[in-house]
Design a protein that fits this description.
about 220 residues, mainly alpha, about 85% helix, globular
Length: about 220
């Protein structure tokens, strides 16, 4: 009996997430625009310093490379939380609701391996010039994270997830060619995926922001 009740509650929570898909699409578009822009700027700065002119008087070191991208991650997570908090406030909803907790439980497994791999990279992996390895893990598991939300997220987010996942899986095939063309495969891959992919997503979904403003008063009610 308790299992049936829990299942019904989960279904109700998922239904609530699904009904708010328009709002989440608008938030995702905003975050993608900012995150994509920051990623393009970061990748460009690293590429110019390492391959064009050394404005830092030295190449970007492996751990500096990782720290730069983790800073972008932190900023986008904070921005996402602020947008979600604002949407909840404006629609008399509760920030940190059951819906949000369920979403966090869904995506949590996709964070464990990249977190552990990143910890290894900062500990000793950076000594082996493993930037490409950590980049491949970040790209592939970010794709898995997005795909894990497919049951309640807009279809466009799942499409973005497939783009990241397939790119991450293709890194072993693409890395040498990209390195021959540009001299910096890890930087180019991060700029293309977290930069260009996110900007394309934002552009394709930007009109949803207007729909969010129009429909938010009804979409966020239980």
């Amino acid at each position: 009996m308790n299992e049936n009740l829990a299942a019904e509650e989960n279904l109700g929570t998922i239904r609530g997430l699904f009904e708010r898909a328009t709002i989440y699409r608008g938030i995702a578009a905003r975050v993608a625009l900012v995150g994509g822009t920051l990623s393009i700027l970061t990748a460009s700065a690293i590429f110019v310093n390492d391959e064009v002119t050394r404005f830092l008087d030295r190449p970007v070191r492996p751990r500096e490379f990782a720290f730069a991208w983790l800073d972008i991650l932190l900023l986008t997570v904070i921005l996402s939380a602020l947008f979600l908090w604002r949407a909840a406030r404006d629609n008399a909803d509760v920030f940190g609701s059951v819906r949000m907790k369920l979403a966090l439980r869904v995506i949590a497994p996709s964070v464990l391996i990249p977190a552990a791999f990143t910890g290894w990279f900062f500990g000793s992996g950076y000594l082996g010039a493993a930037e490409l390895d950590v980049v491949a893990v970040w790209i592939a598991f970010y794709g898995l994270l997005l795909l894990s939300t497919a049951i309640f997220a807009p279809r466009s987010i799942a499409t973005l997830g497939w783009a990241f996942l397939l790119t991450g899986l293709a890194v072993p095939l693409l890395a040498d060619k990209i390195d021959n063309w540009t001299g910096s495969a890890p930087t180019v891959l991060m700029g293309v995926t977290f930069g260009v992919y996110h900007l394309v997503f934002a552009a394709l979904n930007w009109r949803r922001i207007a729909e969010t403003k129009t429909n938010s008063s009804t979409d966020f009610t239980d």
